[in-house]
């Protein structure tokens, strides 16, 4: 489901300062915990990364990642960008989604960051 982001004056594009990611054959931008798609008509549409085979929402308690210390806690201001994924929020760490879950982070799959 997509909704229009009202009153969004920022124009997303190359070198706009936000992380660009590939999503369903187009480019979206991570902006303050949102996944924004800049339309040609100037409107910004809110997208959500779908739960899929590539980006599951399963528990993966054995996931080991060197992207942060084992005691790191994901949340606002943690240093990792928030990514809306299905009905929850994940965090972008070394090109894949981390979902905080109890005493570990689940791996919710890769994200193609556009350089």
TrEMBL record:
Ranges of compositional bias, category Basic and acidic residues: 1-39
Region (Disordered): 1-41
Taxonomic superkingdom: Bacteria
Protein name: Threonine dehydratase
Organism in which the protein naturally occurs: Thalassoglobus neptunius
